[in-house]
Amino acid sequence: MNTLGIDLGGTKTIYIILDSENNIVYQNKVKTEHTKMMADMIKNIQQLQKEYPINRIGIGSAGRINPETGEVFYATDNLPGWTGTKIKERVEKEFSIPCYVENDVNCTAYSEYKLLKDPIQNMVCLTIGTGLGGAIIYRDRIMTGSQFSSGEYGHMILYPDGKSCNCGKKGCWEQYVSGSVLNNRYHHEVPLSQHTTNWPEDIFKTLTAERRKIVSDFIHDLGVGIISIQNTVDPQVIVLGGGVTTTSHLWLPLLESYIKENSNLKTVIKIAETGELAGAIGAAFLAKDRLGVK
After folding, report:
1. pLDDT category of residue 1 using cuts at 50, 70 and 90
2. Cα–chain-centroid distance for residue 278?
3. Which of 20, 108, 148, 195 could be disulfide-bonded to 64 (CB atoms 3.0-4.6 Å)?
4. Who's near 148: CB < 8 A, 6+ residues apart?
5. Cα dihedral angle (223, 224, 227, 232), rounded to 10 degrees?
6. Whose CA is closest to 17, among 195, 286, 280, 261?
7. Mean of pLDDT values over 88-98
8. Averaged over 117-129, what is the pLDDT?
9. Which residues have a Cβ under 8 Å from the Cβ of 76 and sit 6 or more positions away?
10. Most confident of 76-80, 114-118, 201-205, 226-230
């Protein structure tokens, strides 16, 4: 039996198909067009059906998702018109195939959780990309919350009355820790004559005064948030994913040192292993586990 996993993101959509042994037999990445997200996804599933028998569909979507109904409870203006979209209903009506829908970061967390070599019960996943996403797995379950907002760490207030966020609040964590923040600070604070095309690595490798300040703030702000997570959730493992982690070999030791100096709790900090396919793989795993496919 084949399970289709889809990671429906704000900039790209990733499709993978897992066979009954969890081997990836198909994978593809396409650009996301905000105004045609649903229509494009339906079209791509139709095309895949011509080549592969599909028995289950798992979809990870940005926004707060009600996994019981498969509906988008809330999405920011980054995905205009996405709030209220009934993803599960539309897909099942179109294809008569069981579908499971979950938040995209929850899918990423579930993928990493399922693939951990040592079994654990409690884990937090943070994705540091364009923004900052989060997910909590507690006693083997994805925590969703009464308004499907558990793990929305990107909108945890780090600095009261700080930078404005597109959620309408001020001082949200993702306004200080994200790929967008690093990019903006690099291009505004590092002299133009020193810019390189590989700016993410250049920030952490070429430690001029401007870069040292960016790195120091990044480590401090990421560390403060992680210590807050330690003291509220006390996870066994915190997994870091997202595009910024491609440079983690340059900054992870600094982060671990900061946490060791400022926290009396010992938590394993590790980098995600499944890369950009994590969300789609996790969506497929969830479809298998929640919809009864072994």
Report:
1. confident
2. 9
3. 148
4. 64, 65, 66, 67, 73, 74, 103
5. -140
6. 280
7. 97
8. 89
9. 63, 166, 167
10. 226-230
Query: In this predicted structure, what is the pLDDT of residue 242?
Result: 86
Q: How far is CA 151 from the centre of its chain?
A: 11
pLDDT over 60 at 294, yes or no: no
Q: How many angstroms separate the CA atoms of 252 and 4, rounded?
A: 34
Residue with tokens 């996993």: 5
Q: How far apart are CA 170 and CA 158, in angstroms?
A: 9
Dihedral sign from CA coordinates of 15, 247, 223, 183: negative
pLDDT reported for residue 293: 53
Burial 179-193 (b: 16+ CB within 10 A, else e): bebbeebbeeebeee
Residue range 228-267, pLDDT digits in tens: 999 999 999 999 998 899 899 999 999 999 999 999 999 9
Helices (H), the chain: 37-49, 87-95, 104-115, 179-189, 199-205, 209-232, 248-262, 278-290
Could you identify the residue written with the tokens 């008569």? 96
Distance CA(84)–CA(26), nearest Å, equals: 30
Tokens of residue 274, six digits: 């499944």
Please check whether residue 246 is in contact with residue 198, taking contact to mean a CB–CB distance below 8 angstroms: no
Phi, psi (deg, nearest 5) at residue 63: 105, 175
Furthest C-alpha separation in the chain: 59
